[in-house]
Design a protein that fits this description.
CATH architecture of one domain: 3-Layer(aba) Sandwich
Distance between the termini: 24 Å
Helix content: 40-55%
Strand order of the largest sheet: 3-2-1-4-5-6-11
CATH class of one domain: Alpha Beta
Shape: globular
Radius of gyration: 19 Å
Length: 334
């Protein structure tokens, strides 16, 4: 019998790449999507007929139990969360309910339905926050600096607790920043590439950003979802830091994006204090050596390739009207 997987947050960036990857591995793929998640359906429209979508979310404990009972997946990947840091400041309680307690609801539903289901929790480098040392590994202490990362720390430790105290095969992947052409438009990387493409096409004249000196460890989302699957194929569950081990600044990202379009970024970019974070983290840099040594995982897309990939995709999408007719099948799915 073919393995099966249930992916929460399947309409997001990581969920869409993971669904593609699992299908290529021969999985039967099920996804959870909120009734209101119509804005991101374009990410999985090309999977029409190949995945089964169930309407539920991480606030609905009864719905999670019902779907797990009906589907009986061999693996569950929890990618659903309120993932935008500024929104976590505006809606801290909602962020906690979805990102923190939602993981607990899902883990406990798995415990009740089938303790043999293998579980993956998507963690974040934001959990390290004001890190005491760099690079950060699986043993680096967490020091979250915003409601989103606090909720992710809770999700990490509740995953560890269900593994150690309840015997579940439960893993947490501590993912550093990962981008793609499917990244949400509200994130700074996509804001950069999309606005640069608009400027090239004469649709915009300025890009306003916050701290250009902020540095991150950026990788390609398609590489990172592969690590999720690899974690659940091991003999023993564990937690893994996933990143490139390289730091690049927001300014470097901007310069690379504009240079790809033969534009001088200094003619178009303005720094606006409004976009500074209330509590900026120190540079977060991954030490992915455990993932490399135990999983055999390593990134395949380099920084410049990633930025150029995103710019090219935005340039192409802005050059033609968006067809939304494909969303009907998901709106009707349950």
């Amino acid at each position: 019998m073919a393995p099966s997987a249930l992916v929460t947050g399947i309409t997001g960036q990581d969920g869409s790449y993971l669904a593609e990857f699992l299908l290529a591995q021969g999985y039967t793929v099920h996804g959870l999507a909120r009734a209101t998640s119509t804005g991101n359906l374009e990410r999985i429209q090309h999977l029409d007929g190949r995945v089964t979508i169930h309407e539920a979310d991480l606030l609905d404990e009864g719905g999670l139990f019902r779907i797990l009972h009906d589907v009986r997946p061999t693996e569950v990947y929890n990618l659903a969360a309120q993932t935008f840091v500024p929104t976590s400041w505006a809606k801290p309680v909602f962020t906690s309910e979805v990102t923190a307690l939602g993981t607990t609801r899902l883990l406990d539903a798995i415990r009740q339905v089938d303790e043999n289901i293998r579980f993956y929790q998507a963690g974040s480098s934001e959990m390290f926050g004001r890190a005491h040392s760099a690079p950060q590994s699986e043993t680096t202490p967490f020091w979250p600096r915003n409601p989103y990362s606090v909720a992710k720390v809770y999700s990490h430790w509740i995953t560890v607790t269900y593994r150690e105290s309840r015997g579940l095969f439960a893993c947490s992947g501590i993912l550093f920043n990962h981008e793609s052409p499917r990244r949400g438009k509200e994130f700074v990387t996509r804001k950069i590439t999309r606005t640069a493409a608009k400027i090239k096409l004469g649709l915009a004249t300025e890009l306003r950003l916050g701290n250009l000196q902020a540095r991150r460890d950026w990788g390609f989302a398609g590489d990172y979802v592969r690590s999720m699957w690899m974690q659940l194929q091991q003999d023993e569950p564990s937690d893994y830091v996933i990143g490139t081990g390289e730091l690049h600044s927001v300014g470097e990202f901007v310069e690379t994006a504009f240079a790809h379009l033969n534009l001088d970024w200094r003619n178009y970019v303005a720094v606006d204090p409004e976009f500074y974070r209330p509590a900026e983290t120190v540079p977060l840099l991954a030490d992915p050596s455990q993932a490399r040594d135990r999983l055999g995982w390593q990134p395949t897309v380099e920084f410049e390739q990633l930025v150029q990939m995103m710019v090219d995709a935005d340039l192409a999408s802005l050059s033609q009207p968006l067809d939304t007719s494909h969303t009907d099948w998901l709106r009707k799915a349950a």
